[in-house]
Amino acid sequence: MSEELLKNAEEAEKAGDYAKASELYLKAGNAFQESGDQNKARDCYLKAAINGAEGVATKGKADKVGFCYFNAGLAFSKLDRPEKAVGCFESAIKNARDEPWLGMAYFQLGVAYDLLGEREKSVERHEKAIPYFMKVDNTKMVGLSYLSVAMRYFLLKKYKPAIKACEKAIPYLERVQAEGYVGDCYYYMGYSEQKLNRNIAAIDWLKRAITYYEKTNRQERIASSYAQIGYCYGELGDYKNMFEYSKKAIEILEQGGDKAILASAYVNAARAQIKLGEKTGAAEHLRKAIPILEELQNRETLLYSYVQLVNLYDELGMYREMLEELEKSIPLMEGDSPQTLGNWYYKMGRAYNELKIHDQSLEAYIKALEIYTQAKDEESMGNAQMNIGGQLVHLNRYKEAIIHFEGAIKHFQKIGENQKIGRCYYNISLAYIRMEKYKEALNPSEEAIKYAQKIKDNEIMAATLYNMGNIYIKLNDAKNAMKYLEKAANLYQQLGNREKAMKCSEKIKRLKLGVWLPDLP
Question: For 317-416, which CATH class?
Fold first, then answer.
């Protein structure tokens, strides 16, 4: 069939009937393309374009000029040259009278403009095609033209006109039993409703789309519809259905399909599982999504996925896995705001601390502080310095630790963060105790108590009172030691910490007996 069409095209070309030759070359190209011979198909399309141009140049019969342009436009479309196709189709329309192919010229012109990104023009040309298709009773093309209008409106983010165009398309497409295209209409109606935040309506249309796609076995569109339905349920707060429909999409797409939709389904499944408290399953889906998102260079969703995965590992106590994801994603975070990058190093510091790798934890917190300083974020700077101090204590570098705790206090004072100020003073007193500088530990301990009283932080107050008692033991001041230990015992009793309360009482008893306790816990 393809060879016969090619032979007829060559004969028409030799006879100088360029309009017919271009039409036959075009048909031959389509035939070769269907048979899988892409090279011959491309040659035929090229000859179709040449003959179309030749027909125009020689100004064959006046009624054939437009047809030559039309065939040349079709050929250039097949050759992926939309800029050439636009010129040919515009000229075809200009030179046409009332030819039966005029509707198709407008339709194909709309397609070419869409490929060039000129979607407003694409909508206009598709709309102009409709009355010509109606005139020749081409019901299917009327429906497809309305559907094409809807798709372009959707891409233009004009969702209400997109829905109306789909509603117009459906009766025509149903009349010719074009079930796959009817499914597309319901799909774009559902997708548009979702964009308008009308999620209940979106779910209804998308479920209708699936019934049509199932008839035509369009698995990828079924999966895409499931994914969208899952997203809509998530917006409605129905996370169980969000997960179920995302899972249905995943089951289809893991067999092969659109990677972008698969990644989206993984992320939505994870979102649902996070809400449902299924943290391990959520982490698994995010791990599957990340390499696809990296391949697709979908930065926004990739960033979200890394953040969620890191948070999940943190909550699950999987700190080595947490560190692995943190380190892998630093180049991505470097392209974001300083605050985000600083938070990333801060999380690294936390993970290393949980693993008791204090030197690397210190490095990460210092890096976070440097970045927070650029962002001039007082609270974050304070948090970083407080944690730097904590790591220095672990590394027995007490003098440096005190400097950082004092630095943290200055930041927290600017924003009135009294709880953290109190905790910094408590940590300073501990550092002095570790250095056996007991007198120096008294003042920061008193400051810690003052701030703890302000915000009723009974835990830090009890711990500080207990330390004060121990400090006075070291200073051979039994009277003050018992005073603070009694206060600590009462507070621990209120907090329900019987073990600590009994420890205080035991020390008081021994002090009354004159038995000193040289050790400080």
Answer: mainly alpha
